[in-house]
Design brief:
2 copies of one chain form a homodimer. By secondary structure, chain A is mostly beta strands. Chain A has one domain: Porin (Beta Barrel). Helices cover about 15% and strands about 40% of the residues of chain A. Chain A contains 5 helices and 13 strands. The first copy, chain A, has a 12-stranded antiparallel β-sheet. The mean pLDDT of chain A is about 95. The interface between A and B is large, with 60 and 60 residues.
């Protein structure tokens, strides 16, 4: 029986047709509520547990409607349409409100697919970076629990040491993996797609409150690429495109050490003036 | 009363709380079902018509679960959580199946937001390209109705003239706008985010069946930027990152002629071997 904290965080109990119950895990706590990546992984896990599941994850969109508390939550994961090779899912995560009625904390949609071998080609080669062992690991922020669950070795664009408003670009590259080794799976890949600190901190060299509003991850990995990766490092690259009136977007790519793209991801993030 | 075909395509009749009815418009017909961009715009329109709407569109994810027929459809657009400055929407589009029961054709999530003026910055400058008037307009595919609704002036990466398997990259740039002038709004911006032909055709110079599975668009424009754009051209840029086992992803950016980013968009697309 695994005692890895990520497996503990993914624990869900069946609670009727299309329904599961769980509790946010303290090991993945962020400043307010759990790390968004672990929430995304939990919603994906509900799909993966579903008896009607077809195929493997292709696309995951998670909308963070309100912060989860440390209390139990319920997830409804419903297959709304099953085709020959794709399946579409609608997911809602709720917690009881003050009046006991369920309040929506998170919504998500997932597409799963039975994939076939076809012509394949990568149009975004992995950037040339030093090997993981030659890059110093850092702890992003002491006092934030979830960051301790990941080993992070920044190659480019680390968290600014001086908040002097003198940022130059929004690109970060880092080698990363679970701090306690755990073979990569779709849920941990979903979580790793969201480990990048807010681009506004880097571009402005100014630390302002920020939080993901919506994230979409496309899974290019199948079982073979996950197995090839194992407990190895991923190279993550993130950059913003546009900061405008309280929100910015962020693109990310995740490669394994062999240079295979495992996932590409995008998010829109709230930031305070 | 407008007779613009896009306004006709956006026509929805109220059908009870959170519900609307409409019919796909023949002017936006694709090879199988309507142009995905017009479907996305229609689902967004249901949110914009909703009496409880807060703010303007920030994020739109549309999942194409099955092709729409030319028959009437129903849209349910439900505000699942309203915060002080953001609102989260879940949308489902159905058509009656053979047994008369509703079948899900499309799902979507939308986030709307009341936006404030803040520090803003563009981290992806518009590429240097010739002015629209100096670029020849083309008709992408004769016989496909929706492409006639748009004026398209390709700057780079046009549809291959020879399907010889000799593609070099997946980048397209084109000036584009409604063929019949219509001031830009959120719905037409959502549709324009999906006009790019499948990247696999460009990268492989091979024409294979392909279709969008899921698209996410982030709106950076507010009312001021829409008004600034009016009936002018947008520069659209699209590129793929990864083609793998039947699916590829595509990133897009849309600028107005003044060089302002109006939207960034991402999609995952099915393709046949």
């Amino acid at each position: 029986m695994s005692t890895h904290p990520f497996d503990e965080a993914l624990q869900l109990q069946a609670a009727g047709e299309h329904r599961w119950r769980g509790t946010p895990h303290a090991a993945y706590w962020n400043m307010v509520g759990p790390f968004g990546g672990s929430t995304a992984a939990t919603l994906l896990q509900a799909v993966l547990l579903h008896p009607e599941l077809l195929g493997t994850p292709l696309s995951l969109t998670v909308n963070y409607a309100g912060a989860l508390t440390a209390a139990p939550f319920e997830v409804e994961a419903r297959p709304v349409r099953t085709n020959r090779s794709t399946q579409h899912w609608s997911i809602t995560q709720t917690q009881p409100g003050d009046d006991g009625q369920p309040v929506v904390a998170t919504t998500a949609t997932v597409v799963t697919a039975a994939r076939r071998d076809t012509w394949s080609l990568s149009d975004v080669p992995m950037p040339a970076v030093p090997a993981p062992a030659t890059v110093e690991p850092v702890t992003l922020f002491s006092g934030v629990e979830w960051v301790r669950r990941y080993e992070m070795r920044p190659v480019r664009g680390p968290v600014p040491r001086r908040w002097d408003g003198q940022g130059e670009d929004s690109v970060s590259q880092l080698w990363m993996r679970d701090a306690e080794p755990r073979p990569l799976d779709f849920c941990s890949l979903a979580a790793l797609s969201d480990v990048f600190f807010p681009r506004v901190w880097l571009r402005r060299a100014t630390q302002v409150p920020a939080g993901t509003v919506s994230i979409t991850t496309y899974f290019h990995a199948g079982a073979a690429e996950l197995a090839q990766t194992g407990t190895g490092y991923l190279l993550g690259q993130a950059r913003a495109q546009e900061f405008r009136n309280g929100f910015f977007d962020q693109n990310a790519q995740l490669w394994n050490e062999a240079g295979t793209v495992l996932a590409t991801s995008h998010q829109i993030v709230y930031f305070k003036q």
